[in-house]
Write a structure and sequence with these properties.
The chain is α+β, with helices and mostly antiparallel strands. 33% of the residues lie in helices and 21% in strands.
């Protein structure tokens, strides 16, 4: 049966509760589950219909390295990083402690244009793929991606600084500890009017299943807001959509969510908008988002919770931070 939440995922569940999960990406397939006999039968069935090759236990998939131990599973792209550093002649560079200087503000007219923008575009494209296992690169890569059409020397310097940071931690990735996990939570944040070019805010969020980080995002908002509360509330709407999607796919995979999902926000005004029945003059143009979140709060699907800015995990997805916060 194909999942409704993710059309690349297929599930076969037996009457005794055992299941097989099959994930497809173009011509690459991952098969997993607790039905060992069923997995062997699925492989034989695929071999009858397609020319396939069994590569054994998952170790390398789409340039993502998978390592297992009794403690859990780790995901990294060490070989991909080293190849990138070698191709750019940055293996011998001086390592950097952070991906981007917090005081650096890039703009569309900073210094002269690059003579060949294709070099910049290829490098940024390779860095985008690294965000699959390195969430700390998500914000800085989203920033440099905004200048793909007309990159300048300052933008290329920022890319080289990211490569210097990769030199210091080529094997950095994600670790998922063994043991039971439960409960969805999402940290959301917005960098109010952070873009110096158009004064748009940046939305950042990261979601956890138990203690495991499972999704993250950094994206500039399309509308300029007049208050930080409205920018944070728009970020809350995007975090709510992510939680709804994750609840749906986890339910199809057999992980039933009990209780409300927690939505952590460091703006008390935005949290009040989620529960207050009064609409204010300055919030009318986000009225759809207001009613959307309030409906989910009333139905018990999400529970907005205030978190101090010092404990805001999503901060790293809205601005460049120092090494102590990475």
């Amino acid at each position: 049966m194909r999942c409704h939440s993710d059309h690349t995922c297929f599930i076969r569940r037996r009457s005794d509760g055992r299941c097989i999960m099959l994930l497809v990406y173009v011509d690459d397939i991952i098969i997993t589950g607790d039905d060992v006999l069923g997995i062997a039968q699925a492989k034989l069935h695929l071999q009858k219909s397609f020319d396939v090759k069994d590569l054994g236990p998952l170790q390398y998939f789409l340039r993502i390295e998978v390592a297992r131990s009794r403690r859990g599973i780790s995901l990294s792209q060490r070989k991909y990083v080293l190849d990138l550093l070698q191709d750019t002649s940055m293996l011998g560079c001086q390592p950097a402690s952070i991906p981007m200087d917090p005081n650096l503000k890039l703009s569309v007219e900073l210094r002269e244009l690059l003579p060949d923008p294709s070099v910049y575009q290829r490098l940024v494209g390779r860095l985008i793929y690294l965000t699959n296992t390195m969430p700390d690169l998500t914000f800085v890569v989203s920033v440099i991606s905004q200048f793909m059409h007309a990159p300048r020397l300052a933008h290329m310097d920022a890319v080289y600084h990211i490569l210097s940071y990769l030199k210091s931690c080529p094997g950095l990735g994600l670790f998922y500890a063994s043991g039971n996990q439960s409960g969805l939570s999402c940290f959301i944040d917005a960098d109010y009017a952070g873009c110096k070019t158009d004064r748009c805010s940046t939305t950042g969020f990261c979601t956890f299943y138990g203690n495991h980080l499972i999704s993250w995002k950094s994206k500039k908002q399309a509308v300029v807001f007049r208050s930080s509360a409205e920018a944070e509330y728009r970020a809350m709407a995007q975090g709510t959509c992510e939680l709804l999607w994750l609840q749906s796919i986890l339910g199809e995979l057999g992980f039933v969510q009990k209780g409300s999902s927690k939505l952590f926000c460091d703006n008390k005004s935005a949290i009040m908008l989620a529960s207050d029945s009064v609409l204010h003059e300055r919030s009318k143009h986000i009225e759809v988002d207001i009613h959307f979140i309030r409906e989910k709060v009333r139905s018990g699907i999400i529970n907005p919770i205030f978190v101090p800015s010092s404990e805001q995990t999503a901060d790293v997805f809205t601005k460049s931070v120092g090494p102590s916060l990475l």
